[in-house]
Design a protein that fits this description.
Strand order of the largest sheet: 2-3-1-4-5
Number of strands: 5
Bound molecules: ligand Z5A
Order of helices and strands: EHEHHEHHEHHEH
Shape: globular
Mean pLDDT: 95
Oligomer: single chain
Number of helices: 8
Radius of gyration: 16 Å
Largest sheet: 5 strands, parallel
Helix content: 40-55%
Distance between the termini: 16 Å
Length: about 210
């Protein structure tokens, strides 16, 4: 049986990933594909509990960077092994709102953690497993944060300063430059329909 496609969406806060995931799903389904949408961290009961731990700001304990990194990978291991790989094996396409490149961008770029350490943990958790296509939706973090603020209460990540998100954005762009074979960047500051057009053209280039 033909394996499903693994497509991931990346970007800073409020870049429009969820909006574009709905468009990708409709596009792939119209072509007759079976599609499941997931998110990281999350997507299984265990990984969703880890997500709550990661996102909730708390006054009684301050999560250190190493804990954050390991929890991201714990949630990813659970999702990849128990959900994503079985779906792909049965021919279903998987679209994931964030995946491993978020760790490179947020923990590596944003927090400034050592990339050799991150790469070593990735090797244990993912081996050579990686998406067929990653679309980075690029938005000035000031615009993205404004969109997020319009939604209401901010989570632990959204409470970070703007320079954190600038580092995250730059890391995404730098990574994309070095991995053009599977990472594509689209301008997320265009109006929604124009962004969707660019996203769909990335998919069509993949021969989906
Ligand atoms: N994280 C990490 O640090 N390391 C990791 O390895 C992983 C994650 C996997 C997850 O938060 C947090 O975990 C994330 C990184 C960290 N935190 N941050 N920052 P999340 O899943 O809750 O949040 P998010 O991934 O950042 O998603 P989001 O804020 O929901 O944004 P989005 O999905 O990209 O955007 P959206 O919901 O589609 O759009 C936001 C609003 O903008 C909405 O009102 C839209 O209608 C509007 N929008 C969308 N596109 C446009 C355009 N083109 N123009 C105008 N308005 C638009």
């Amino acid at each position: 049986m033909k394996k499903g496609l693994f497509i991931t969406l990346e970007g800073t806060e409020g870049s429009g990933k969820s909006t574009q995931i709905a468009v990708i799903k409709a596009h792939m389904e119209a072509k007759g594909h079976k599609v499941v949408c997931l998110r990281e961290p999350g997507g299984t009961p265990i990984a969703e509990e880890i997500r709550t731990l990661l996102k909730t700001p708390r006054k009684d304990d301050n999560m250190c960077d190493k804990t954050e990194l390991l929890l991201m990978y714990a949630a990813r291991a659970q999702l990849v092994e128990t959900v994503i790989k079985p779906l792909l094996a049965q021919g279903t396409d998987v679209i994931c709102d964030r995946h491993d490149l978020s760790t490179v961008a947020y923990q590596g770029g944003g927090r400034g953690m050592n990339m050799d350490d991150i790469n070593a943990i990735r090797k244990v958790v993912l081996g050579d497993f990686r998406p067929d296509l990653t679309i980075v939706i690029d938005v000035d973090p000031k615009i993205g944060m404004q969109r997020a603020r319009n939604r209401g209460e901010l989570d632990r990540f959204e409470l970070s300063q703007i320079d954190f998100f600038e580092r995250v954005r730059n890391t995404y762009l730098e990574y994309a430059k070095h991995h053009p074979e599977f990472v594509k960047v689209v301008d997320g500051q265009k109006e929604i329909l124009a962004v969707s057009k660019d996203v769909i053209s990335c998919l069509d280039n993949l021969n989906a």
